């Protein structure tokens, strides 16, 4: 079952007609909480600490924007630009920004008309993509790597999932008890099946022509990939 990446679609990928607004809102908030608990958020903070204090960060597939809104607390001199192809995600992101308890003047959100990155070359310092690549097919990922590296001046930071039987069965047993949201429990299992093993990531990076990169396994069952411009 986990020998190869799955092509199954997640409910979220099927569009708003397949879930309620309440399910979507709860799911987005829980996903950020999961990223906090599993260390994805704090790991990203540690990487950004090594960047320029006034760096421009673009979050691709920003969802409800909670990731970069909370990053802005740690890095008030950086600017954050969240983009997503989902109207409901950007609407929620702008709402979360309006009620956020810290200054958010350095954060903006924008709906994209198409999934491709069509920004000017070297137009931002850092591209961030958290739990985005597993939604893509291999050819889309290769194209994204190329587009992201073209857009950034410095580096691309990617957080995603390790496809592993232990992770799958642990999540299968405990996610219905812990989360009680089908967008998290059902989609989460598909996400793991759409995740990556190390060699797959290396192959995709090399097929995209990436020369300077790091693929780091992080507990529990996740990857942090950094691609440097040079």
UniProtKB/TrEMBL annotation:
Report which superkingdom the organism of origin falls in. Bacteria
GO function terms (MF aspect): methyltransferase activity
Keyword field contains Heme:
no
The cross-references to InterPro entries, in alphabetical order and at most eight, read: Diverse_substrate_MTase (IPR051052), Methyltransf_25 (IPR041698), SAM-dependent_MTases_sf (IPR029063)
Any one biological process term the GO annotation gives:
methylation
Residue ranges occupied by any Methyltransferase domain in the UniProt entry: 57-154
What Pfam families does the record tag this protein with?
Methyltransf_25
Query: What keywords does the record list, in alphabetical order?
Result: Methyltransferase, Transferase
State what protein this is by name. Answer: Methyltransferase domain-containing protein
Originating species: Psychrobacter frigidicola
């Amino acid at each position: 079952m986990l020998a190869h990446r799955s092509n199954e679609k997640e409910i979220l990928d099927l569009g708003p007609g397949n879930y309620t607004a309440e399910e979507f809102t709860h799911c987005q908030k829980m996903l950020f909480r999961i990223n906090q608990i599993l260390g994805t958020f704090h790991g990203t903070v540690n990487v950004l600490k090594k960047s320029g204090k006034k760096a421009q960060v673009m979050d691709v597939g920003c969802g409800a924007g909670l990731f970069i809104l909370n990053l802005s607390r740690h890095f008030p001199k950086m600017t954050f630009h969240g983009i997503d192809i989902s109207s409901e995600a950007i609407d929620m992101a702008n709402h979360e920004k309006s009620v956020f308890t810290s200054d958010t003047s350095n954060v903006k959100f924008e709906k994209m008309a198409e999934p491709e990155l069509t920004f000017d070359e070297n137009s931002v310092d850092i591209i961030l993509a958290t739990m985005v690549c597993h939604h893509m097919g291999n050819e889309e990922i290769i194209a994204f790597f190329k587009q992201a590296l073209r857009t950034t001046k410095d580096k691309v930071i990617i957080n995603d999932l390790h496809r592993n039987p232990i992770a799958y069965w642990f999540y299968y047993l405990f996610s219905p008890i812990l989360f009680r949201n089908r967008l998290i429990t059902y989609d989460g299992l598909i996400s793991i099946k759409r995740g990556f093993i190390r060699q797959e990531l290396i192959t995709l990076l090399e097929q995209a022509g990436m020369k300077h990169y790091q693929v780091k396994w992080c507990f529990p069952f996740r990857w942090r990939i950094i691609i440097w411009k040079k």
